[in-house]
Amino acid sequence: MAGRDGKSGPDGKDSLSATTLVGVAAGVVLLFVLAILLLVAREDRREMVAHAGRLAANTALLLAEQAGQLVAASEVVLDEAALLAGPPDAPIPATQAVHQELRRLVETWEHANSVYLLDPTGRSVVSSREFPVRPADSSGRLYVQRQIGRTAAGLPPALVIDRVERSVFTGTNLLILCKPLPGADGSLRGIVGLAVREEFFRNFYQQVDVGFGLAILLLGADRQVLVRHVQGADAGAEERTAPEESPAPPAPPPGGMLRLSTLGEGDRIYAEAPVRGRDLRVMVGLDATALEARWRERLRVYLLIAAIAAIGVSGLGLLALRWARREAEVRDRLEEANHLLEQRVGERTAELSESNGKLALALRDKEVLFREVHHRVKNNLQLVSSLLRLQAMRLPAELRQGFEDSLSRIQSMSLVHELLYRTNQPSRVDFADYLRRLAPTLAECFLPDPDRIAIEVVAEPLDLELDTAIPLGLLAGELITNALKHAFPDWRAGCITVRLERVAEADGVLLTIMDDGVGLRPGPTDAPADGGGLGMVLVQSLAAQVQATLSTRPGAPGTRHHVLLPAAVTGAD
């Protein structure tokens, strides 16, 4: 029989076997934990690099949008300046009046440094800088040669963008945007140009902060570096760096990223985005060294977890060994364990009482969770609405109506979830507040001039269950939308009135939506002003869903829609 120390013989072989087993098990568990932590750390590093690539791509898209807007504004300046050059069959006027108009353009547009007109050979005719203009020959500039070459090749007029190093006028680097001035016979009559300081781009790029040092490149045709900005670099050094001294990195794969180490910019993760409709690209590089440093900081956390795990496994191993040695003693104390079991039952009863209190707390947490769910649903509906709106912009006008109707319905549902998120009752909606928010929202969606049609909402307080509020809100949205679209044609002004009131004689709640517009077309009294369609089919289905009675009749003038909800559905007293 084993003794109190767990040994079955004089050599203690059983105890030794248990010690070996516990040691092996502890070692296996420790190696497993370390392997899991290593995999997690590697996956975390991969995810950080992928996140940096997505961040660089999103930043490049933002800067590409900014560059596109700037080029569009510059084309406006060039087109206005081209009008000052006179008719195609006349020489470019070198008058003080033209000089004054060019100066006005420069003062109007913040990014414009100067605007000027050149003759077909690239010589200055008139400029916003000075009058009379000093003799200057730009025939050797790349942008002049490109315009001359395009005209000689019979290509259509186009915007050309070039970089000028250390301009003789400003002493700084400039970006030149120019367009040709075609003559009456299609020949090159002259060139209109706009100069933008490189510093204008850098000032904007300096404000972009994503948590890592950025290298931003604006690339032109043939990946020519037009602007290069490295955050934290010496501004004077950037001004002195010519594009040919530090060319652009190779293009990343489509939709991907490129990790590259370049002279003067270090190890970076690059992403690229095109400027829509332009021969321009924006390339953004994130400092990979800072990324690695951040990952190493997180790696220290993993190492700390590994150390804690090792200590925990060692402690568990010691406890298991101690349990093995005391196994015989535990068998001898079985009777005492029964007594302890009874004591544990009493303790468990006390724990159950405590659990009831925790359940009440969990219920409150559930209500908070419901509010968060409604908040996320509202955000997702708004995202779907934005995607539909973007898709609708690409569709012909005759197909856009269906998208706009879907947007109004999505906004009606989104508004319900927004109110649920803002209230302390996660399953009930203040329907009066909902109507006051819904009507102006729909007016902004469907009316270019919302002030043309007045919307009056008179609603008594009414709390509705979610299953009733959503279909009733969609019904109200359909009727208001129908009035906005059809009751006031030909830009008529008018008024839409929404009423929500308890009706004692009908034992329910009455929702009335009426307008003073053109009224119903000849036909059945339950037909809408537009002759019926999916909207009214949906209204009738929603009314049946909430057990409401729907009636439509002519107003004096206009149309009235009455929706009577029974008290059993609304819960009205």
Automatic annotation (TrEMBL):
Q: Where are the transmembrane segments?
A: 20-41, 301-324
One of the entry's Gene Ontology molecular-function terms is:
protein histidine kinase activity
Q: Does the keyword Iron-sulfur apply?
A: no
Name the domain of life this protein comes from.
Bacteria
Reaction equation(s) it catalyzes: ATP + protein L-histidine = ADP + protein N-phospho-L-histidine
Q: Where is the composition biased (Pro residues)?
A: 246-255
Q: Where is this region: Disordered?
A: 235-257
Give the EC number(s) under which this enzyme is classified: 2.7.13.3
Q: Histidine kinase domain spans which residues? A: 372-569
Checking Pfam families in the record gives: HATPase_c (PF02518), HisKA_2 (PF07568)
Which keywords does the record carry?
ATP-binding, Kinase, Membrane, Nucleotide-binding, Phosphoprotein, Transferase, Transmembrane, Transmembrane helix
- Top-tier EC class: transferase
* Name this protein carries in UniProt: histidine kinase
Q: Which organism is it from?
A: Rhodocista pekingensis
